[in-house]
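Before relying on records like the one below, remember that each one covers exactly one chain. Contacts with other chains, cofactors or solvent are not represented anywhere in the record.
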Amino acid sequence: MRTRRRPDQPSAEQLRDTLPALPLEITAGRRATRKATGVPAPHAGSARGPPLGGYGWDQAGVLPPFLRIRFPGRVSGPAEVLWHSRGTVGRASRDRMPPAARWRRPSAAAAFSALRRASSGLPRGPAAMDGASPNGSGPPPGPGSPPGTGETLISEGRATILFPSANEVFYNPVQGFNRDLTCAVMTEFARLQLQPKGIQVVLPGEEKMDTGNTQPPEDGDTAPAPEAPQTVKPGEACEGGLRVLEALAASGLRSIRFAKEVPGLRAVVANDFSARAVELMNRNVAFNGVGALVAPRMADARMLMYQCKADREPFDVIDLDPYGSPAPFLDAAVQAVSEGGLLCVTCTDMGVMAGNSAETCYSKYGAVSLKGKFCHEMALRIILHSLDSRANCYQRFIVPLLSVSADFYIRVFVRVFTGQAKVKASASKQALVYHCVGCGTHHLQRLGKVTSHGTGFKYGAATGPPVGPTCEYCQQRHQLGGPMWAEPLHDVAFVENVLAALESSPGRFQTEERMRGMLSVITEELRDVPLYYTLDSLSSTIHCNTPSLLQFRSALLHAGYRVSLSHACKNAVKTDAPPGVLWDIMRCWAKIHPVKRERFAETSPASRILSVEPTLQASFTLRDDANPSSRKRGLKRFPENPEAFWGPKARAKAGGGISSSLQEMRKRHQNKRTKRTEDGTSLKSFPCKRFREGNCSLGARCCYSHEGEPPAAPQP
């Protein structure tokens, strides 16, 4: 009896024409056997007629009882699958095949949908039907083809992408530094991971570098020459290389740059949950000719990572750069990354992490943020604490390679390892912060302690607190923040390798000067000193003029303490000196540059700090080592914004554009405080707050609008 095909089912001819565009190896047969062929076999197929295109369909569009499919370019999921009895795809056993009685012939529609699901994430081959693209949007543009209507070309690094003029897919040019830094870090990570496999990473400009002794052997030396290592260059697929996941890819720009600029990659999965974004990614991948490396994917990022964890196919590199907080993706990411793999995380919700919403920060990251001068470094330590605590749930821990605070976001690069013994020490790596609301002094309280116990270590609870009920310098109360990561933020040796690669292969990145300056400052930071003070906050506390950076650093060096800058703040002071020494130095400075103490209240922090005589006689004589090396060389350490409104952009919206109310509000509030007319009529478009409250006494003389009904007076 011939199976009737429903009108919505694809025909056998449609399946025959569509599936060759997928890089699958399909074998059809009448029964299950133990033999694995692995190549398309145009044999018997169905009993109702010859196969169509060698894939074993009969004229009614019904598959044979047994079908084996192999995925040569598979980036996730099983390498071999069989048709299940319900028409879905299941894993094939290598040594035992299921009995033929358990299998039936699925319909063409079930076969087609299952094949498309199974092949999602695979690189697409050339289209078979009149050049139609797999996403159904017409033929994809080839290299050099012009953009379509309402699209522009955006070039960054070696990539050029098509981008819609409407705000349908998110893109922010400010993140160019983020993408440049990620490419540089991934390159050195690839060098670190592939070197034990005998694979050498070669960047442009490094080909002429001496890689060893090239002198010919002496006479009589018959020892065989050592085998030359395999070399990989950017843009080349590397067998045994890194598998990369960009979980939130948007336009695919970052993934395309990975494929064209980072050597040693095996596959890059560019994932997004937006159908418009995936469609744009497919076009950009074809436009840049990186289809052999980049595979667009449409899926929930969390489900994709959980599935890769279940399939035991982790990624070597996972990049998380969401719009806002990455908190929903962290649990899946720490599980889906391979042993020793690289996890790259960006946080743009700095308002939450810098102390504006401490309760929201706790709900997302498990830590209370503080609004102090050190807030940007504390934000880095909060996200590291969150990553480590989530990894600890699965007997894993993190090792930071690089942690950066730049512009309006923070970016961390960490490696993830597994080890129960190492996880036990995680509590001693976290700390609470006691921050004085009066003078800004801070103290750290570790959550745990580690003591040497013979050949091993003993772990226990820490003792505290390190402060009294009030601040010992200004008698004000303390705020409690954290817990946060209290260990080093960077691996200095790794950062130096990134710097060396920038020197040996110059001109790779548009923001290279800024990268070199920031990374140089990072190598100079004190690794074992969490958080920092700022010169302006110390001076404003006692209401005196601010000493120069070299003078204050010289005073600390004369006192026998270490001091460094911080990349997170240009006037930061990181030092191992206790807070009492800092205030003694400021007391000595206030004696040289007197302040009017009669203006201070007796209970003010300035009055209480200056009322104590300094026990340390500070010397402000300049020292040569007070000037850091990065400053002497004139590196671009803290550059100004290249243009106005250099910050976060509006969230992408389906259909493009932003809401009219938001546009109108931006237009009304743009420069409302700077562009005023002499008669004050420019403010008439803004409502009067006092009029709304019912207590504006100016009436018509008020420069703000009194439109609308004032609120009714409360009844006595």
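Residues 5-109, 117-144, 210-214 have pLDDT under 50 and may be disordered.
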